[in-house]
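User:
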Amino acid sequence: MSVAQVTCVVADCAAFARHHQISLVAGGKAIQLAGSGRGGGFATVHPVLAIGGAAPGVALVAKVFKENELADLGGGQVVVETLTGLWGALGVSGRPDWPELVLALPFQLLTVQLDGKKRFVALMLDLGARGYVPAPTSQKGDVAAYRQRTLDERIAFATSVAEKLGLLAECGLLHGDLNPDNVMIHPRTHDVQVIDFDAGRVVTTGSERSRVPGKGDIYVPPEVNDPNAPQGFDLSRFSLEAERWSYASLIGLFLFTVHPGFFLNGISALSGYASAADDWPDVDENAVYFRADALTAYAAFRPIFEMVPAELTTLFATLFRAGPNAAARPTAHDWVGALSGVSEPPTIKVRLVGDDIVIEGDDVVIAWCADNALYVELDPGGRQPATGSMTFVAKEHFHVRVAAVNAFGSETVESPTVRVVPLPKIERVRLPVPPAFQMPALSIAAQLPRGLVDVPAAQPYPAPPTFARSYRGPAEQPSPELPAPPRFARAGGPRLMGSSLRRR
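Assistant: Predicted structure:
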């Protein structure tokens, strides 16, 4: 444990302290610090055990700046200038919740006597005590655990960091060192906090440039890394617009667990990729800009790149197409808008291209457009891109059910019903075969009324003579004689029926 005796209160942000119910430290107070502190580029961070002999009501840390590094930065006055300018910009940002969005913001600057030396100290909230941990791909982050998170969780983290970067950009803060080591995450709430503001600079005229070059890695704007410059970087190019590259890099990290341009053969290869015909995430694996040792990793991450909604893919493509042209990169506002949109369930529109009454066998085109969707599911039709169309062959009345899906929900819409007119058909109908007709041979007696008796006997009526036999026969043959018709009589008398009728 060490004790820092406050010699001067340099500046403080009363609005931040009041929001978090923090008692500001007065001059002459003794601050007890834990002996073990976390090291950083410009300072070490120590938990505050007591102020004036009493434990603070809110967990705090003290950032003790290193003398030499602070001098290289420009002295304590540079830190004061940056933080007071940021406090003022946040106060007029129109965001009443800004103290929650910048939890790592130093709220009080002090000079103290520590270990016999005059030191510059910044007091801040202890994010570790609030449940925050290093970012997944920082030196201490757990990458494997983060990669197990669902897409909606990763989008939530990316949305959070974009919101914080958007607020800082509105305030004109040029951070100068945005990378995974300078953000912390809350695993449960998905909140992301940016840390280490003190090396930044508030832009007021537009001519301000970063005081530091960052870590010189892929998160630094590519135009800043200049191997021909004396120190390997050119700070004259590190503008607020240039830092848009760092915004996109961190957002991509939280979405994909890897930098979206990891496959580039050095950051200098960005210009070659920008001028190529490929739009991110497409690449030419044989191109000079592509890292030969990244082939396997790219094949693994390509499906992850394609999982994000189209709005985000478009912004990443714009980022890489811009190359070293900082002004053409997506702004923090662009990222906030796109990510806020994809954090909602999708919306979808479906229309029928053509008539809703068709002839059987006609082609029917169903088109759809789903905003903020990863894909759509057609029934029938299966999984399809978020925007597209499909042709169906009309066989009977039908409609298509289209469900748009993203990590935050889904929406289902049915197409108009298509009514199908069947084609005319000619069918061969088999008719039943009627039974063969045969004239029955009837006797005359069978046709007589009851009571009449056939005198001789019932004789079948003889068949008539044929024409040939009656008229065309040989002359020597006599004409056939017709038999006399039978006589009829009433029962009991010899009279003929004709005689009987004539008498009447």
